[in-house]
Amino acid sequence: MSNRPLAAAGRTVPLLRAGLIAGIVVAAVAYPLAAFTGLGAKATAHAVEQKTSILRTALPAETSYLYAPDGKTILTMFYEEYRQYTKLSDMSPNIQQAIVAAEDNRFYQHHGVDPKGVARAFVANARSSGVSQGASTLTMQYVRMALRDSAKTPKEVQEATQQTSLRKVKEMRMALDIEKELTKEEILERYLNSAYFGHRAYGIYAAAQIFFSKTPATLTPVEAATLAGLVKSPSEYDPITSDQKDATGRRNYVLDRMAQLGYLSPDAAATARSEPIRTRVTTPANDCTSLPSQYQTWGFACDYVKNWWSAQSAFGENRLERMDKLRRGGYRIVLSLDPKIQSAAEKNVGAKDGVGSPFANGIVVAEPGTGRVKAMAVNRTYSLDLGENPPSSNPEAGPKVKANYPNTVAPLLGGGSLPGYQAGSTFKMFPMLAALDAGMPLSTEYNSPHRYQSRVYDGWAPSNASGAMTGRQTMWSGFGKSVNTYFVQLEEQIGADKGVRLAEQLGLRWRTDVDRDHASPAKAKKWGAFTLGVSDATPLELANAYAAIAADGRYCEAMPVMSITNRDGTPATYRTASGIQREVAKPRCRQVVSADAARAATDAARCPTGDTPAKGSCGGWSTADSVRGTVGRPVAGKTGTTDSTRSAWFVGYTPELAAASFIADPDNPFNAVGDGQSQVPVVAVAQTLRDGLKGTAPRQFTPPSDRIVG
User: Is-above-0.85 flag for pTM?
Assistant: First the structure.
């Protein structure tokens, strides 16, 4: 059956220009203020034309979806207004007919403004000495909603919705213009995608989902009439929270109007009136705390997507604009996690077991050559409910402050505002890599005493963790045994600032006042302790920095997504400083050090893991010699511990993956994890690399050139 009333089906009912003029005259009489407050002024006319131009292309806010890596499984949604744009052809004729019957039964006969409706409203309002009846057509209502949805400032929102005479006349003017540009079907489609139905349901897709758990295409006459009845007053006619008396009365009114317009036969309308309203309520997921139970451990990765998004200039000039785009832009976002690697990471840090300890053990896995994040896991539950959390372990926090376990939404793995944790000797990679890139060979040798009196860093005298490290060391043995006094001498020769600047090029950021001060151009040259890892870092940063070394010195920014598409299905893009249009989700990579320097650093980094370097000698022992046997393929990496083992780290990588794991107390950095737990990150990384790469053929590291070996 046609959506047009039987009285209008098959023929055109023209609206004479005289009728339009009469309608506007009636409007001017009804709203005399509007006739004399600048409606004819050039500025107002210009503003109306500007807004009309917006209306021709305006799209309402739409929900953004986060998908699992398969691109099909919905993990969660981001929205302020739950909405998904739906074509008219994907809507049941029942809802199209019901909304016309409920809101504007002369929709197919007028040209945006209905003179008869205006006249009726004027008479009714004059009799009541107030506003007892409106005269808004569907087109006028769409104008109001479109202006609201396209508003960029609170003032524009107010102007679009305030009950004033001037606003009403502007609506009429714009409605007339819109009907010249859009067909009735286009207007109806936009209207049904903009209307508010209650329960945060904006548009018919959301309404069908929330009230009946179905799509708009399958709405019955009873369901369609119920939803159409809500538009007038979503709270008054709400069939979910009320006793349904008012909702049923309103629905029956719509059914009667549908019968009068020929959309339903009298018998069908009578049958529909006798049916109760049977809702089947769905509460749509929203944000990262709403992930399905089987993906609940992915909450930290979801949270990183949000933090990453908020830093992307492609989505706005500031964080507020960017997050508004996420919640209103209708994007389709595919997460970069690899389910197999994520599962391995979760298992090896006990993410699903919960934790009864203040010490967090987390891991991040990144892909060399792309920067894509393949796993993020920590032994915490991603939840806002801190009710059962014990008091914080930080004595300065006070008894009412909750600890970060077992539940938290804090970005413990990186990507947020937290500074991270002191990373210890994992930082020795940066001065070594800087030295190699500057032309120093792997065979560079220093006599490394147990304690070394620096001649550069104002009398600083660091010592080694063990007397067994004393003696002449090269980069291979110095890195494998983590000899502090070797690396202080290496750092003295190249300059501490060179390591600091290289770390920045590899993605590290200084988030505490102390670190920023030491890393400043004025002080970096004297930051001798930098090589010992006194700075805070996150596992996300270190996994990605070491991934660049695995990728022959090519650093790629951390990327938590595989793809981002706009609501029209096209890839989301941004324009580079050089004017090139690029996809937001494409890897962003740059060569930071020479490939030969990175390969040489990897050769030395095979020593800590018990692997065999291609060119040199590890000196007989190493700090994590079990890793090679666990991973079962070529592997490089570095351990790191801080004073009194307040935190412990291991960063390991193969040609395919780089992983960084830590154990520390996020609430209290002075709460030492102790030597007994220093191997926890070593085991977590080794087993995650083993499990995540199971079934794939081992790849070999490319050896460094003889020139850089020395």
Answer: yes
